[in-house]
Every structure is written in C-alpha cells, then in structure tokens.
Design goal:
It is a single chain. By secondary structure, the chain is an alpha/beta fold. The strands form five sheets. Strands 1, 2, 5, 6, 7, 8 and 19 form a seven-stranded mixed beta sheet that branches. A five-stranded parallel beta sheet has the order 10-17-11-12-13. Strands 14-15-16 form a three-stranded antiparallel beta sheet. The protein has helices at about 15-25, 60-75, 120-125, 135-140, 155-165, 185-190, 285-310; strands spanning about 5-10, 30-35, 45-50, 60, 75-80, 85, 95, 100-110, 115, 130-135, 145-150, 170-175, 195-200, 200-210, 215-220, 225-230, 235, 240, 270-275.
Length: about 325
C-alpha cells in the first residue's frame, strides 16, 4: 500500500505551487502531482507585468521556475506525472497517475487549471506569445497604438474587445456567424464602442507574420473567399476548457467542466478543495489563482485539524 499523505495537490501552476508553500509551512508535508508539462498557462506567456513584486516584466516560464524552486526549497516533492483518475468515495482519497502509480491523501487540493481554446493552425501555434494571445487582461498593455483583431462572439469576446480599446486604435471582432451569441447588454456595449468593428460569417484561415503578427488571412464561410487583413495582434476569445476530465463522476462540475466550489474553495466532497482556473471561469489570472491556492491550503489545514481533534478520545 502506498503511504497516505496528509495533503496531495494536483496541479503545478500558481495555484498549486502557492497551496504547496502554505501547506509545507504548516508541516503537512504535501506532494504535488504536477503533470508532465509543469507551470500551467504562464509557460506560454512571454512577459508578465501584473504579478506583484516584479518592477520589470518577467517571462512566464521564469516566474514559474522561481515558484517551483521555492516549493522545492521547502521540501515539497513534485511528481512529473498526470493525474488519470481519482476515487473520492472514501478517505483516504486515491489518485492514480498515467504512469500507473497511486497516491493516497487525507485531503486533496485540485489546481489543474484550464486551457484556452485555440484555432489549432500551424501559424497560430508558431506566433503564440508573438502577437497571438488568449488573454486580453494579461497582454493588452503590450499592444498600445495597434489595430487588433478578436475572434469570438460570446460575452468573453465582447468583454475582451471592449477592454482592448483602452490600448488599441481599433479592434475588429471576427465571428463565424452573422449574429453574436453574447448577452444583449454585452452586445450593446461593444456595438456602441466607436473603436469596435465587426466582420461576420468569417474565420481566421492563417496568421500572417514571421517574428510577430502582421495580419491574418480571413475566410468568408459563406462564399469561401479569402482576404488578408492587416493587424498588430490576434486575440482568441472562443472559450476555455478546464482540465477536469478525470474528475467526472467524482466531483460536482458545471456544464462546461469547471469544479463547483464555494467561497472557501470547498467542493462537493468534504476534504477536497479546488483552486485556480479549474474552478474560476471569471478572472483566470495568475494572482487570483495564487490567492485561491492560499485559501485552499488554509481551509485544508483547518479541516485536517478539525478531523484530528474529532478523532481524539474524550
């Protein structure tokens, strides 16, 4: 039988690392099942300018490397395997990895994050971080004075387009249909913004540029015609996919797959806590994920203390 740990953390982004820092300092000896690819969304972010404590922009991978070194200095073991399935029906909870190993935990913190949905074309992949982004709040500041293009038709796309007008000279929204899916209030706000224009029934066929984005090739989905559209940046706002497939049937998830947790990060299973983008579909920021990691760690620590106190003889 594998050793039962007081805390197992699944995920190695800013939420998972922060949870590890707090639980390690509480002498709970956590381990992190960090995945084959550590670091979360920040690993594909060139410059981070909004994380406190860094007067100059810091590269996303460097920021995550520093977090990793901090948790390792505290004695936390990081397992470079992906969680494949869990059994949360009884304690200790069981976490099985894709390598066939099993870990037992008295308490569990899930911080597996969410991935932005991409177009999955070669030119987009090549220019990610070089003018292609999926987070206006993270990267909009770097596009001052440029003409930008936003792909999407929902509330997120309208919100990102409006936000980007704080920096861009013009924002063009490209949507596959001839009408938006966004709520009426978000549509009205975007349509009334003099800096926002719309291109309907179209999709991005290719992202143009060598070292940075210089434009996109758009395809009209009704006529099949293509034309090149110059722009200084491309923002994808077609949704996110939480990394929670392995939790299906074990935790309460919403219709998209986000973990349902209360304001104290508690999930539908007592003793299981959630942190970061796996449960947060609104903010999706490194700093809010770190805050959730802190909250989940403190809640798990208190919950374990209560369970130990209940187990003591009267």
């Amino acid at each position: 039988m594998p050793k039962t740990r007081k805390i197992v953390i699944i995920g190695s982004g800013s939420a998972g690392y922060t949870a590890a820092i707090y639980t390690a300092r509480a002498n709970l000896n956590p381990i992190i099942i960090g995945g084959v690819m550590r670091g979360g969304q920040l690993m594909i972010t060139n410059d981070v300018e909004n994380f406190p404590g860094f007067p100059e922009p810091i590269a996303g991978p460097e920021l995550m490397e520093r977090m990793q070194k901090q948790v390792e200095r505290l004695g936390v073991t990081i397992i470079s395997e992906n969680a494949a399935k869990v059994d949360l029906s009884k304690r200790p909870f069981r976490v099985a990895t894709t390598e066939g190993k099993e870990y037992l935990a008295e308490a569990l913190i899930v911080a597996t994050g969410a991935d932005a949905k991409w177009l999955n074309i070669e030119s987009e992949k090549r220019l990610r971080g070089k003018g292609v982004s999926a987070c206006a709040t993270c990267d909009g500041f770097f596009f001052k004075g440029k003409e930008l293009l936003v792909v999407g038709g929902g509330d997120t796309a309208m919100e990102e387009a409006n936000f980007l007008t704080n920096f861009a000279t013009k924002v063009t929204v490209v949507h596959r249909r001839d009408q938006l899916r966004a709520s009426k209030i978000m549509q009205d706000r975007a349509k009334k913004n003099p800096k926002i224009e719309f291109i309907w029934d179209s999709a991005v066929d290719e992202v143009l540029g060598d070292e940075k984005v210089t434009g996109v090739r758009l395809k009209n989905l009704k006529t099949g015609e293509t034309n090149d559209f110059p722009c200084g940046g491309l923002f994808l706002a077609i949704g996110h996919k939480p990394n929670t497939e392995f939790l299906a049937g074990q935790l309460k998830l919403d219709e998209v797959g986000y973990i349902q947790a209360d304001e104290r990060t508690r999930t539908s299973v007592e003793g299981v806590f959630a942190a970061g983008d796996a449960m947060d579909k609104r903010y999706r920021q490194a700093i809010t994920a770190a805050g959730h990691g802190c909250m989940a760690a403190l809640e798990a620590e208190r919950w374990l203390a209560e369970k130990e106190s209940e187990a003591q003889p009267a």
